[in-house]
Each structure stands twice: as structure tokens, then as C-alpha cells.
Amino acid sequence: MSLLNVLDKAAAGGRLSFQEGVRLYKEAPLADLGAAAHARRMQLYPGSDVTYVIDTTINYTNVCNVHCTFCAFFRPEKHKEGYTMSHDTVLSRVKFAADQGATQIMIQGGVNPELKLEWFESLFRRVAAEYPGVDIHSLSVSEVIGLAHIEELAVREVLARLKSAGMKSLPGAGAEILVERVRKRISARKVKPDVWLDVMRQAQLLGMATTATMMFGSIETNEERIEHLHVLRELQDETAGFTAFIPWYYVPWKTPLRGKEATGLQYLRVLAISRLYLDNFPHLQASWLTPGLKMGQLALFYGCDDMGGTILEEQVVHDAGSTNAATRKQLEDIIIGAGFRPVIRDTYWNLRDDVALATAG
Ligand code: SF4
Fold first, then answer.
1. Which of 15, 44, 228, 235 has the most CB atoms around it within 10 Å of its CB?
2. What is the domain count for the chain?
């Protein structure tokens, strides 16, 4: 099949084989790849709406026993710069976000062996009771596995207890590239790709909402990027449990791994191939936090239908050297500037007409 025919097939929602995905990713001109991804996105969501969520990330502890080489945020146990927030501090951050209209809270941190499952259960119960309008989209596969080890419990039981405490959604953090060769090189203490996928599967089977991410731009090859998309697509075929895919690139400036930052064109190419390859993922999110708002705006023409969150507060990516930040009005302005209409959503993609746009009036 010619390259053009493969692009046409993908733009119409046809399934790409692994070889076709690699070929498009490596050989298709970026403008053509972007046009196909945008056509597919407009076919899925024909109107002019672009969603976003008002959210915040609360990095409750930087103590971590996983020691990923791409991470500048963590501190090993007993390190003098290690911190863990009290529940009251976390609650005060939730209040700050809720007062600004937040409907989603991401409480995420290192894998701190001092923190037991009950610590999270009582925290989530308090958040759920005091802020019932806020969805707890929190932790990561690494933190869930850490709790299972500490408590000597099955992952499913840990997830079930977290869910009954109020955590209804598990973010796709910590996937990086779901290829064993890459994991061994950049995060050897992290769970293997099949375990990451299985934790997600179990969360989905329990009825939790989940997202999937990809951190690209470290040491992976082009083929390994497509392999990552491929294993996610397979799990989505099985469970249909992922709401969105969020690719973002590694920020190398202050991390032990070092390396080069991905370019804007590489970012757009990854977005476009993601929209085309992940034919069974409902949403593709522009992760403006690392490439910045202007690239986030361009992302809306490379397959993205969602601008992600306002991220009123965040530490992990900023510690690695990113300085990007945005207000709600800035986020809405770039959506409007691209010719779309900003629409506020919650974690489960319910539209939240009850929360006023910052640009309204
Ligand atoms: S990325 Fe997460 S798991 Fe890895 S060292 Fe940093 S905090 Fe720990």
C-alpha cells in the first residue's frame, strides 16, 4: 500500500498494523500526518468544542525508593530535603484548588515506604467528604504497587480499598515507554511493562476511570514508541477502560539521565501518530506542561480534542527544569485563538456547564 493510502486509511479510522504505524511515523511528511490526525479528530468530534479540566497536582511526598534516572523530583529515604505533607496541608491545597473551581485533584508523589494504605484511605475519605464536587484522580501504578508490597496485599485489594475511600480514577503516570529494554535503562526499579498494564487492567475491571501516558524522548527508538502505543491499544481492545492518552516529553535539564529535549516537531509527530494508531482511545490530550501553551495550541491541529488541565500547582516536571504554567484564562484564550470553543469537563468527560468559563462575560 502506498504511504498516501495508509494515511487515508488511518484518517478514516482504519486500523494500522505495527509496520504501518512505524512507516507512517518515520516516513510521512509531518503536514500530511497532522492533516490525517486532525481529520480523524474532527470525524470523532465534529463540533468546535475543546475540553479542559480545572485541576491541580499535589505532590504530597518527594521521598521515593524507585530512583528513576529521568526524575529530578525524588529524594531517597532519610535525605534532608525529603518531605511529606500532613493531611491538613494536602487538604489546604485541595481547598485552594476547589475555591478556583477545580473538579479534579491529582494527589501524586514518590513511592514512600513510610506511608501505609490507611494514610491514603483516611486522606481520601477526608477529601471526598469535605469536597464532594472534586474527583480524586490520584496516585500512579508505582504508588499502588508500593502499597501492595508494604501491606503484603494483592493489587486488586489495594485498589478496591482506595476506591471505597473515594479514589475513583487512576492516572496513567509512570508508564514512560512500555518496553522492557527501556525500563531497564531508565527506571530499573520500576514495575515491568506487563505489570503496569495489569494494574491498569485491574483498576478498569473494578470500574475505575483510567488514562494512559507516554513519556518519550529519553533513550527509546521510534519502533519502541509504536510498541508502546501497540500494547496500550491491545489492552483498550480488551477493557475499553482508558478515557484518554497523554503523550509528553522528557525534560532533561536537571535529571541524572540528561539527554536532549524533544523538538516541537517531534512532539507534533508523536501526537499525530498517537491519534491515528490509538483508534480505540476516545480522547487525545495536549500536554502543554512540558512544550508550553503555544505548542499546546498547535496540538489542537494534530489530533488533540482536549487541552488537559489547568494544573494550578505541580512540582515534578518543574523540578526537572520546566517553567511552564497557565491560568484558566490563558488556557481558554489559546483554545479560542485556535478557533475552538473551550468547554469545562470533569475526570469522566462529563461537561460541567455549572462551572463558568474564565473568559465568560
Ligand atoms: S518518577 Fe516517580 S517513581 Fe520514579 S523516582 Fe520520580 S517519584 Fe519516584
1. 228
2. 1
Q: Whose CA is nearest to atom 4 of ligand 1?
A: 68
- Please write the tens of the pLDDT for every residue from 26-75: 999 999 999 999 999 999 999 999 999 998 899 999 999 999 998 989 99
Residue 174 located in a structural domain: yes
For residue 70, how far is its CA from the centre of ligand 1 (angstroms)?
8
pLDDT, tens digit (0-9, with 9 covering 90-100), for 169-209: 999 988 999 999 999 999 999 999 999 999 999 999 999 99
Distance from C-alpha of 125 to C-alpha of 173, rounded to nearest angstrom: 22
Q: How far apart are CA 79 and CA 60, in angstroms?
A: 16
What pLDDT digit, counting tens, does each position of 238-250 carry?
999 999 999 998 8
Note whether residue 360 is domain-resident.
Answer: no
Rg of the chain over Cα atoms, rounded to whole angstroms, equals 19
Whether 175 is covered by a domain: the verdict is yes
Cα 37 from Cα 274, distance rounded (Å):
8
* Helix H or strand E segment including 77: none
Q: The CATH number of the domain where 163 resides is what? A: 3.20.20.70
Q: Is the pTM of this model over 0.90?
A: yes
Which of 64, 149, 196 for mutating ligand 1's site (highest number of atoms within 8 Å of CB)?
64
**Is 253 domain-assigned?**
yes
